[in-house]
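Regression test case RT-17, inverse folding.

Input:
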């Protein structure tokens, strides 16, 4: 049984993970619903009606809300990032194929 407090905590953690790491404005996000890659700038956003001082984000293509996972750092790659690797140029998040 998930309590309301747990639910809010999980939502906050998701917000933090969406914002942390790298340059968030250039970070790529994969929509789990339609597979489109977007950046925070191209996403739809609106104030969260449930949590003060928070935003919710939606896919610019299919309008699914909060269905984003981090995408591979390689610009043309359409896959989800599953591996994080420290490199001389900074931390990279990539799919298995693009791991440095
Ligand atoms: Zn979508
Ligand atoms: Zn990749």
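Golden output:
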């Amino acid at each position: 049984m998930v309590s309301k407090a747990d639910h809010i905590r999980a939502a906050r953690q998701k917000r933090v993970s969406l914002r942390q790491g790298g340059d968030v404005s250039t970070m790529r996000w994969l929509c789990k619903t339609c597979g489109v890659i977007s950046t925070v700038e191209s996403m739809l956003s609106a104030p969260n009606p449930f949590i003060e001082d928070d935003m919710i984000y939606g896919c610019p293509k299919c309008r699914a809300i909060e269905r984003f996972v981090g995408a591979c750092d390689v610009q043309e790659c359409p896959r989800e990032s599953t591996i994080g690797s420290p490199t001389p140029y900074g931390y990279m998040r990539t799919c298995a194929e693009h791991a440095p």
